[in-house]
Backbone:
């Protein structure tokens, strides 16, 4: 049996509400199918507008087999290209980030304009047509300070996502913020284990003493069932919305993305040990309300986010191999906030640096245990792990439809 039919069989025979069979977490062929069916088809969070401050600013990323460069062009537009030279294929940009007036391939110095067109290629003869050798574009969209790319030749519509998240995020002005700090950790576990761990707080009390000082373990906060029947949540939404900040739980029909603004414990304002703000200067000049809690967004398969009154923490998940996933965390603050004056970097990053490390260990232990021949799928808690059930259902539905030839239908439905 080939991997496609094996995957389809296992998806169709899986027990709902249970973790997935072992190959989904460990198998190289299944990982390759994840890349093909999910990562090469869906919109992926790449980075932030504010990382590309001026024309010529760029950053690079690797999605499965595809190196990509994302840049700001001369007109200020954000674009993405396949980072593969149209001469003999060398990576054109090898640095993680930089600023360049033109992109020069290090191999034979073919030189590209910021719109991807080939500006110069030495000694290619009279018949050489430069216009046929532009860098290949990658679909790229930016919304409320977030840049997304999609490798599909025909990407699913971006509007359903941007329409949902823009009103929640626009007031926080992330397009004009700055990255105070970023870190990338590699977790030795499958990308789905990273997500499963993220989508529940069943583990929080036992693992996250720092986060639990301010973040509620309630499934109403982490979960995917709304939470409006909880009076504290309903109250919070009403108060934030009266202040012009969309807050109510909203999830797209596809289950792929969700936004919600939830209160922090004991009216905490930030993810710090005592709940006080970590940054004296507010994240956005346009948000005056107090005790706005955490605006949270997930968009499978690449990102979850928390936006607070004084800073934002954004996360990008990137699969490296069946048993390896990179998680990049960025702390965003007001662009004029000054380190050492408005904030102390250790205090700003402490809670999530600890939390990330704790989660890394959790995911790695989970991955080791799943590799045991004795592993069999176990039941998720319906009370505490509704978010995990929802993620796994989204994954299983996406994979089944796309494997079964009905994938285009799913893409259209997301659209
Ligand atoms: S491979 Fe890029 S210039 Fe030759
Ligand atoms: Fe965690």
Residues:
């Amino acid at each position: 049996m080939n991997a496609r039919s094996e995957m389809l069989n296992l998806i169709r025979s899986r027990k709902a509400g249970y973790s997935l069979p072992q190959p989904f977490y460990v198998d190289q062929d299944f990982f390759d199918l994840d890349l093909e069916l999910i990562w090469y088809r869906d919109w992926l969070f790449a980075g932030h507008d504010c990382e590309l401050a001026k024309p010529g600013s760029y950053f690079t990323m690797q999605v499965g087999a595809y190196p990509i460069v994302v840049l700001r062009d001369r007109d200020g537009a954000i674009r993405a290209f396949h980072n593969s030279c149209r001469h003999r294929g060398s990576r054109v940009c090898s640095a993680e980030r930089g600023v360049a007036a033109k992109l020069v391939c290090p191999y034979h110095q073919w030189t590209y304009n910021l719109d991807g067109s080939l500006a110069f290629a030495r000694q290619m003869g009279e018949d050489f047509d430069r216009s046929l050798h532009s860098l290949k574009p990658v679909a790229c969209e930016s919304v409320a300070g977030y840049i997304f790319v999609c490798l599909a030749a025909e990407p699913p519509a971006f509007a359903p996502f941007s329409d949902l998240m823009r009103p929640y995020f626009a007031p926080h002005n992330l397009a004009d913020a700055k990255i105070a700090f970023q870190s990338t950790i590699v977790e030795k576990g499958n990308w789905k284990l990273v997500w499963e761990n993220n989508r529940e707080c069943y583990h929080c009390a036992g693992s996250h003493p720092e986060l639990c000082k301010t973040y509620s373990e309630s499934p109403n906060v982490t979960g995917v069932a709304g939470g409006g029947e909880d009076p504290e949540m309903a109250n919070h939404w009403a108060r934030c919305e009266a202040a012009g900040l969309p807050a109510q739980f909203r999830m797209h029909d596809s289950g792929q993305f969700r936004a919600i603004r939830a209160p922090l414990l004991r009216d905490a304002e930030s993810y710090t040990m005592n709940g006080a703000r970590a940054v004296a200067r507010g994240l956005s000049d346009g948000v005056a309300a107090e005790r706005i809690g955490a605006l949270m967004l997930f968009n499978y398969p690449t990102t979850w986010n928390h936006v607070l009154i004084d800073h934002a923490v954004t996360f990008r998940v990137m699969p490296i191999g069946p048993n390896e996933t990179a998680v990049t965390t960025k702390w965003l603050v007001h662009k004029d906030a000054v380190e050492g004056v408005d904030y102390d970097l250790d205090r700003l990053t402490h809670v999530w640096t600890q939390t990330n490390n704790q989660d890394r260990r959790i995911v790695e232990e989970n991955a080791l245990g799943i590799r045991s021949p004795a592993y069999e799928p176990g039941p998720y808690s319906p009370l505490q792990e509704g978010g995990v059930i929802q993620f796994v259902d989204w994954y299983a539905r996406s994979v089944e439809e796309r494997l079964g030839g009905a994938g285009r239908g799913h893409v259209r439905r997301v659209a």
In short: The longest strand covers residues 177-187. The radius of gyration is 22 Å. The pocket of FE2/S2 (inorganic) cluster (ligand 1) is lined by residues 85, 87-90, 105, 107-108, 110 (CB under 6 Å). The longest helix spans residues 345-370.
